[in-house]
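Practice problem: predict the structure.
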Amino acid sequence: MTKNPDLQRETRRLRLRIARLRRRIDGRVRSAERGGRKLLSWRTYVQRWPGNAVAAALGAGLAISAGLSARRLTRWIGLRLMRRAGGRFVEQMRKELAEVWKNSAPESSKGADDA
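Answer:
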């Protein structure tokens, strides 16, 4: 029993379209995974904002060292440094997440996969 040639051609076209869509989806998933790993890596933030990282590390060190002794001024300075650097980090993280969210929005695929 032979199939209709038009049906075979349509089946082949649909399979190619499905394969293209799968490759696009796989690419987007891999891209999202890479972006997620970058967002979770502390190295990313130290490379992008070294000044804030140094200030936070200095503040944490001062706060911890002052916690072991009775020096209130040192502890206050350390905590203040940590809060300021942490506030900057939070703002930068918010911007970064907003950018990732904006970039992850699905594009209009109308007609794009028929090419």
